[in-house]
Amino acid sequence: MKLQWKTLALAAALTVPGLAAQADPIVIKFSHVVAADTPKGKAAEYFKKLAEERLKGRVKIEIYPNSQLFKDKEELEALQLGSVQMLAPSLAKFGPLGVKEFEVFDLPFLFDNYQELHKVTYGAIGQGMLQKLESKGITGLAFWDNGFKQMSANKPLHTVADYKGLKMRIQASKVLDAQMRALGSNPQVMAFSEVYQALQTGVVDGTENPMSNFYTQKMHEVQKHVTLTNHGYLGYAVIVNKKFWDGLPEDVRAALTQSMFNATQYANTIAQKENEEALAKVKASGKTVVYEPTVAERNEMKKALVKVHDQMDDRVGLELVKKIYKETGFDPAKL
């Protein structure tokens, strides 16, 4: 009888306005590996702001930038184990996880501009790819842009021949490995947090990055040359632990979904602007020579690298590549 009265008393207390809100908030740890003042870092903070405002104390989102919690190779396993609830890893990270289709985004010169890119990431192709993560215990929420990548080294990079023999840092991606080998370089897989020191000490000669990453990680201090190749895309998938996500109250999940939609619009709006500003800052620093390839030099590089598409068909899926070609209007035969 006493137990029954306690149960009734608890139920009555939860119906009193304000008492239910006193429960501990749901904590969402959002970990990422780049600086807080990058497009991804700012978008994560914007998502936090929107979600906490809408949910009025029911959710607390903790942002951990710059690999404070986990490095590149650790974060996906940490998410699957529930040690962290939300990540925004670069798309290349999903290949080693077993979802090789995501490496299609690593194909060089697949997209010429953001308009072509967004036809894929905002459309049915992108949503279908996010759904493939479900079998890994992961729910995909959105694609966030960082930007198009530029090549850097301690020597001028004007022609394909200039890349020969260079040790170039890459993410763990078979496509990126093939890309660097097509240029005659030696690819070196390395965690993002270790790149600055590796460049500084000569462990690697160069790397590829959008300018926002290049500047915020101070790579311009240890790279004498950067070439505006725009050869590849670096983007992220915002993901959550599926068990955690499915276990959220429906109204909380709905508010988080809407906040993520708004944060995605924000992220992809500022990405291009942030990269343009970072480029201007690199130029102003005077520490790195910025070079823009001629049309002939860019076409030479494009012809050398588009061959990687054929090499990687079996890995990323020929049908997926064909779907993207159709969506964007890309025709490698016209090069």
From TrEMBL:
It comes from the Bacteria. Gene3D superfamilies: Bacterial extracellular solute-binding protein, family 7 (3.40.190.170). The keyword Metal-binding does not apply. One of its GO terms (cellular component) is outer membrane-bounded periplasmic space. Pfam families: DctP. Residues 1-23 form the signal peptide. Keywords: Signal, Transport. Coiled coil: none annotated. One of its GO terms (biological process) is C4-dicarboxylate transport. Belongs to the bacterial solute-binding protein 7 family. PANTHER family: C4-DICARBOXYLATE-BINDING PROTEIN DCTB, PTHR33376. NCBIfam families: dctP, TRAP_S1. This is TRAP transporter substrate-binding protein. The lineage of its organism: Bacteria, Pseudomonadati, Pseudomonadota, Betaproteobacteria, Neisseriales.
